[in-house]
Amino acid sequence: MAAVLLSGCACFPGLRGPATPPPTAQQVDAFGPMAGLVGKTWRSEPVGGGETGPADISKWSWDLGGRVIVSRHALEDGSYGGVTYIYENSQTGSLDYVYVTSAGFHTTGTYQLAGDDSWTAEEAVIGHETITRVRSTGRITPDGRMAVTSEYFAEDAWSPGRNVIYVPVKAKIPEITGQLAQ
């Protein structure tokens, strides 16, 4: 369940809003390949047979005049969701973020952009019962999907987390009920 709690969302048909213009050169320079996620809604699909539970739906958008990426997500059953704010730290130049969840914990971290158009992050988890750190890597695949793998640090050891592919979909973010699935 912890793996599902740290990422997630769902798929419901929705109306398509106004088209998001392509990222500016300044946004691509600051956010790298993550700028290409904006204006899209993504639904998770497991890689292999290991992932169970509701799919995750995330919608990516610009905020604060295009200086912040916002990713909102929820599990398709509405049991859990969160919002991530990604921004360029003006003091350090790093790509920092904060993730706030419906389960009462939050995370903070920094993305590292790689030359192969991937991004990696290690974040501190604050307020979760067992998980204290998360490491993840994401990238856009040649066929336009987003691949994400993660691992969790709990009880003094790293363990595998999620290994999913997100596909672009026309979907609406489910309403978060706050009632965690049993």
Which terms summarize this structure?
182 residues, mainly beta, 2 helices, 6% helix, disordered N terminus
Q: What proportion of the residues is helical, as a percent range?
A: under 10%
State the end-to-end CA separation: 9 Å
Strands, total number? 10
Q: Strand pairing plus helix content: what structural class?
A: mainly beta
Please describe what this structure looks like.
By secondary structure, this protein is mainly β. Helices cover 6% and strands 47% of the residues. It is built from two helices and ten strands, in the order ααββββββββββ. The protein has a ten-stranded antiparallel barrel. A hairpin with a 5-residue loop joins strand 3 and strand 4. The termini are close together.
Short description:
By secondary structure, this protein is mainly beta. It is 6% helix and 47% strand. Strands 1-2-3-4-5-6-7-8-9-10 form a 10-stranded antiparallel barrel.
List the topology elements.
Blueprint: H1 2-5, H2 25-31, E1 41-46, E2 56-63, E3 68-75, E4 81-88, E5 95-101, E6 106-113, E7 118-126, E8 131-140, E9 146-154, E10 157-169
